[in-house]
Amino acid sequence: MKQEYPQIKPMGERAILINFEPEINENSLKKLLNLKKLIETGIIEDKVEVINTYHSLLIVYVYAIENIYDKVSALKALVSKANIGKNIDSRIYHIPVCYEEEFGLDLELISSENKLKISEIIHLHTSPVYTVYFIGFLPGFLYLGGLDKKLQISRKASPRMKVEKGAVGIGENQTGIYPQSSPGGWQIIGNSPVDFFDKNTYPPCVILPGDKVKFYSIGKSEFLQIFEDVGRGEFELKSEKHHG
Amino acid sequence: MGEIEVLYPGLYSSIQDLGRHDFRRFGVPQSGAMDSYAAKNANLMLSNLEAHPILEITQLGPQLKFYEPTQIAICGAYLNPKINDSLVLNNKVLSIEKGDILSFGKRNNACRAYIAIAGGFNSKKILESYSWYNGITQKQMLQKGDIIRYSRLERPLHGLNAAVKVPDEYLRKCGIKVFTGPEYGLLSIFQKKLLFDSKFHLDVHNNRMALQLKEPLENNLTPIITGPVLPGTVQLTPSGKLIVLMRDCQTTGGYPRILQLSEDGINIIAQKVVGEPLNFQLFEIK
User: Which of A229, B41, B175, B276 is in the most buried spot, having the most CB atoms within 10 Å?
Assistant: First the structure.
């Protein structure tokens, strides 16, 4: 059965889900983010929150929706109005990562499993410009796309009870940074001294869906310096406008 | 300023309100009272705003000593509350004198009760909510020796009449009203029939993030591309586990989302304990 996209359906009494084709790519993300913006500015009579994932938008209302079919048709109208080819404004952020032994707990393992020298792993991880698809799993956890295929490795058979805050890991075709310490099953290759979530600022995340991320390798002494600067609130992530 | 000293924290007691909205897109769970109906009632009884912070207590209640006079109300599960040595009722404005100790006994039915206090607890609002959640607020649950602050009550706000009649049949209900979830259509007719004809029971794995059900639903569904989930989303794992996501759930997930509980359904299931039966009743959205 051929499905028609986007599908717009209620998800319970206070949310509406919009699904695009189930695929992960930047064009879908652009479509989603353009529509998200339109919905955020276009729905004025209700307080809503719009969340995106790879191919979905979830519009969450604070209270049960009274006339759900009216809302669904209003959203359908917005979808048809969305200028889906439009590029989105974004920034590219440069994120320092220390890949030294002390932090790169699973570098050896990836090195032997994937037949790569550790220097090659670091090179392959710091080369791409990754795309931020959305934030989920933990407050401030960025879902990144663009990992080099040569670095793909399965998750740990049994997860670690505690992965340190800032740990940079790889799980299957994904890479990311744990914004706080948590149990986790990804293979850990380094640590970033940067804060990715600050509950005392608004918005609590600087890097947002649609932005880009590039990692650069730092040594232990630079790690400690940045760590201190972050603690004092004196570290600013390097970033520039990205056109794409 | 009044102070409450926590003499005994209970099994799992935490400050909650109606949850954190508008921060899900940063990966922050919604949180808030597991049974929002009881939480709202407790506040309304004291003419508080419904979103005032309340204390959610679970199965084994805490022991709390009050250092200033105030008024409180308890709604939700009946956990045999006592002020000093006297048993008191739920759904009633209760007067507290300086030095009074509030404690709880065995539970009669249901498992979560809500304590509201006149004017609300003086707790810190973070990301627009008072709800405690590990990593967002400093505390996750009450501990022995904690101090909770509240406004001093200058004069009583309410008469101390008989208990107010609050409909609480939901505490004994086992029918959970649900809607179809985004991946419901992937289930076979047989699986759908099982889902609505079977009785399910709460498993031992249950907390504020999720409740797991004991009876599996065999399936061969493949994981989905990570998508949004909500409190009340029912996920189906490859091993057949049914997981009902609750107020502290993560914002996204990769298991097929086969059902979505109604708001009432979330409140009903929030009051269930291990081994209690429940069944799903499918509703169409009107």
Answer: B41
